[in-house]
Design a protein that fits this description.
about 260 residues, mainly alpha, two-stranded antiparallel sheet, 14 helices, about 55% helix, elongated
Amino acid sequence: MPVQLPTQQYAGIVTAINRLKTEMAALSDAELREKTFALKERVSQGESLDSLLPEAFAVVRETSKRVLGLRPFDVQLIGGMVLHKGEITEMRTGEGKTLVAILPAYLSALSGKGVHVVTVNDYLARQDCEWVGQVPRFLGLKSVEELVLRGFNYCIIYEVDSILIDEARTPLIISGTAEKPSDEYYKAAKIATAFERDIHYTVDEKHKTVLLTEKGYKDDEEILDVKICMIHGNNGHRKSSSLVCVLNEENATMVNL
């Protein structure tokens, strides 16, 4: 039996969405925004999200055109449908992953149960929240202002291979049987607490690394009464691996507060 490609599988739904183009374009901003409340009401009365998908996607498409100046292409609509089904869609850089994600995010948000969008990149998380977040805000949906834990209803994961494969290995590593800490670790922990940022060490928040300054090395040697053996990393910076690891843990706590 021949395999049905996504473009063929979802062709009928794409056609249904495209038929709504003229209707959506004729709506005023207020009328377009009102669509959200009408769709929510239909969900509360028992209609499935699948049945509302064409109209919901058409609403997001028209809103994106007005607010962002970008109208999702048919292939992006298909990407949104794949995500709605809980499957993985692979897109190259520049193909509009963020715009695709807002389609199923809006659709699932109609249930009122919340939607999580996850990414490992803090910078992109802030940037995309401000940029593409204009679409759901225009349509009357609100973002959570403070960090809270909502119920697990629907989640879209950016760079899913990184989060579920690469990043997922770290808990497996740290969950292994731990050896009893040596005195050196306790000493290093005390030094890390006493050291001051930008005086004894610098922080690269983008790469989540900490590097000792010359003063940091000097004070460390005096406190421990040892000569630290220096090694050079790929970026050319000197580092003492044991102490830098402790500082990394300490800094991670400070950054997240």
